[in-house]
């Protein structure tokens, strides 16, 4: 995961997306989704990495599931501090208010699968899920490649 995220390890994309697909099929067997979305990446990180690893995974997974990929449902409102050295409560505070809905009318009544690369405390995916639910999403399930 580290290679994929920080060292341009795009060649891992197919294997990681297959891992996500098998997890969705095992854990969310009876679930149906209207769309897959992903955690938006900070613009500075996007410039330095040149890609959003969660978006690449989300696009691939959506294609395999036969649903649309909607990266435009949530957007970042501000940059956040790196979370690596923060505890759970600090992480929650760090991401609070860092995302907002970008497509409220489209979100209403829809079922989402939210993709991120790594989940440690769940602060980031919980905040993005909250934004989607407050915008009227019927359901948001979360899937990540790794647990940190």
Characterise this structure:
The protein has 148 residues and is α/β, with parallel strands linked by helices. It has one domain (2-147): 3-Layer(aba) Sandwich (Rossmann fold). It contains 7 helices and 6 strands, in the order ααβααββαβαβαβ. It has helices at residues 2-6, 13-27, 43-49, 53-65, 88-95, 104-107, 123-134, and strands at residues 35-38, 68-69, 74-76, 99-101, 111-119, 139-147. It has a 4-stranded parallel sheet, sandwiched between helices. A two-stranded antiparallel ribbon has the order 3-4.
In terms of topology, how is this protein built?
Elements: H1 2-6, H2 13-27, E1 35-38, H3 43-49, H4 53-65, E2 68-69, E3 74-76, H5 88-95, E4 99-101, H6 104-107, E5 111-119, H7 123-134, E6 139-147
Parallel strand pairs: 1-2, 1-5, 5-6
Antiparallel strand pairs: 3-4
Q: Which H/E pattern describes the elements? A: HHEHHEEHEHEHE
Mean pLDDT: 88
What profile does the largest beta sheet have?
4 strands, parallel
What is the radius of gyration computed over CA atoms, rounded to a whole number of angstroms? 14 Å
**CATH architecture heading:** 3-Layer(aba) Sandwich
Strand elements, count: 6
Number of helices: 7
**Widest beta sheet: strand line-up:** 2-1-5-6
CATH class: Alpha Beta
What CATH calls the topology is Rossmann fold
Low-confidence stretches: none
Overall tally of domains: 1
Structural class by sheet pairing and helices: alpha/beta
Morphology: globular
Helix content: 40-55%
Terminal CA distance reads 11 Å
Strand content: 15-25%
